[in-house]
Design a protein that fits this description.
Blueprint (H helix, E strand, L loop, with lengths): L3 H11 L15 H11 L20 H4 L10 H4 L2
Length: about 80
């Protein structure tokens, strides 16, 4: 029998998805971003090395377009 906690876990795991479309007008308040990143550092990592590096860009996104190394088709949703 599943406990409430394990049922929540399976709900989260089975309903996760990767977001590929972003609302360019959405802005996360700085205090919320700090809280999100603080919690993200608690995620498990290989050999518990926790090699986290975060870069938060809230200005000059267009200038970064040429520096981005991931799939370029996603950039149109990230950068104006």
């Amino acid at each position: 029998m599943k406990t409430k906690q394990s049922a929540d876990f399976f709900t989260i795991i089975n309903n996760r998805h990767s977001v590929k479309l972003y609302d360019p007008s959405a802005k996360i308040p700085r205090h919320e971003m700090i809280e999100i990143l603080t919690e993200a550092t608690k995620a498990p990592s290989s050999v518990n090395l926790q090699p986290w590096r975060f870069v938060v860009v809230d200005e000059n996104k267009q200038r970064l377009r040429s520096l981005v190394r991931f799939n370029q088709r996603h950039l149109k949703h990230l950068l104006p």
